[in-house]
Write a structure and sequence with these properties.
Helix content is 32%, strand content 22%. It is α/β, with parallel strands linked by helices. α1 packs parallel to α2, α4 packs across α7 and α9 crosses α13. It holds the Pfam family DFP.
């Protein structure tokens, strides 16, 4: 299992709740069931109340004692255990989120057609909360027309079905069908819980895929400008916020291209990733993605492009001078990708979002500098981070102020970067809604 640098920094349970969020973790009968142990740990350590409901087949891979020990609750797969409590109805009715990982082809088929022959499928029928299915299976099974039709039917009803990841499968097989990493699944799940708790209408999933039919481009990470074969000019951007934006858009139904600069993060499931290194490469990739397919509906520039690059790159490593002197470094300015996209929109109505990592100084406050940048760049929305003291970079949480070109100001309280990502997409969707013809 891939090591996650933030594995010990579990996200908090939804704030403002009178009780811990009730999560049902369904586990299908696939080899990826072992990964759900890590997913369960993330939920329990962040204060959620988790009930594990495995299928009988799942218990062939991970036994009931493991699930009981990790969740602190007894585990059953049939409807007859504690039948006087009517678990096949009660568990789904009381849940705030039902998450199934892995969701096998068999489970997807049963969920799509309302079959209920065990405790988990009964729970899916009685749930009145967001339902998140995370498929894992061999590539041929995922690509089969029956599975594709089942997924489409589930999504049309508001169920969130993640795209599987690509990589090593059972045995020597490689392809699409791998369970996404637990950290990614956890981020999607907590984002759904937060949106449901915020009264967005997502409780039963009606608007979860509200970006369906939209093409969006997101940039992430920090560019590096080579100085010599071993040195470069760069910055501290980790790419976490850009990846959260891409992941949130994909969950909400958008077609997403992520232009990633020098990140070490796993590709978000269902997102096309284009990897770049320099600002010049970032510019070319963003413009190509934004202008393709009739033009992007939104371009979100969460990356931190280097403002300057060395005027020339030295072919050999620059050596230290014996006298202690340092070489001079001539710089030239890089193209302003955000301003270029805002000035020459890929399509009519394209919403352009920029990011500003600011600190206050004698010339003005963080917001003073941000408002000036918003006007200078010409974008529709600017996400402003106060990075005094190195805050935000590499951290799992974020807080920001969203400045609109229309003069609006929206503060987003400190929370996971997934929550900020959803707040940004809510604002982008509001732009689209405002621009839509009356009665559309």
């Amino acid at each position: 299992m891939t090591h996650d640098p933030h594995a010990d920094q579990a996200a908090p349970a939804p704030t403002g709740a009178a009780r811990p969020a009730r999560v049902v973790l369904g586990v299908g009968g696939g080899i990826a069931a072992y990964k759900s142990c890590e997913l369960l740990r993330r939920f329990t350590e962040s204060g959620h109340d988790v009930t594990v409901v495995p299928t009988a087949s799942a218990l062939e891979f991970v036994g009931a004692p493991t699930w009981a020990a990790l969740s602190g609750k007894p585990v059953a797969s049939d409807v007859w255990t504690s039948v006087h409590e009517v678990p096949h109805v009660r568990i789904g009715q009381q849940a705030d989120l039902v998450l199934v990982a892995p969701a096998t082809a068999d489970l997807l088929a049963k969920a799509a057609h309302g079959l209920a022959d065990d405790l988990l499928t009964n729970t899916l029928l009685t749930a009145r909360c967001p339902v998140l299915l995370v498929p894992a299976m061999h590539t041929e099974m995922w690509e089969h027309p029956a599975t594709a039709a089942n997924v489409e039917l589930l999504r049309s009803r508001g169920t969130v079905v993640l795209e599987p990841a690509e990589g090593r499968l059972t045995g020597s097989d490689t392809g699409k069908g791998r369970l996404p990493e637990p950290a990614d699944v956890f981020e999607v799940a907590t984002g759904l819980l937060a949106r449901a708790g915020a009264g967005t209408g997502a409780r039963r999933g009606e608007d979860v895929r509200d970006l369906r039919g939209r093409r969006v481009v997101v940039s992430a990470g920090g560019t590096r400008e080579p100085l010599d074969p071993v040195r470069f000019l760069g910055n501290r951007s980790s790419g976490l916020q850009g990846y959260a934006l891409a992941r949130a858009a994909a969950v909400r139904g958008a077609e997403v291209v992520l232009v990633a600069a020098n990140t070490e993060l796993a590709d978000p499931a269902g997102v096309r990733v284009v990897r770049v290194a320099t600002t010049g490469e970032l510019r070319a990739a963003v413009l190509d993605a934004a202008r393709g397919g009739g033009g992007a509906d939104a371009v979100v520039m969460a990356a931190a492009p280097a403002d300057f690059r060395p005027a020339s790159q030295v072919a050999t490593k620059i050596k230290k001078a014996d006298d202690g002197s340092a070489p001079s470094l001539a710089l030239v300015q890089n193209p302003d990708v955000l301003a270029e996209v805002a000035a020459d929109r890929p399509a009519p109505g394209t919403v352009v979002v920029g990011f500003a990592a600011e600190t206050g100084d004698a010339a003005g406050s963080v917001l003073d500098h941000a408002r000036a940048k918003l006007a200078r760049k010409g974008c529709d929305l600017l996400v402003v981070n106060d990075v005094s003291g190195g805050a935000v970079f590499g951290e799992p949480d974020n807080e920001a102020v969203l400045l609109g070109a229309d003069g609006s100001t929206t503060a987003v309280a400190r929370g996971s970067k997934a929550l900020l990502a959803h707040a940004v997409w809510d604002r982008v969707r509001a732009h689209w809604d405002a621009a839509a013809p009356t009665g559309a």
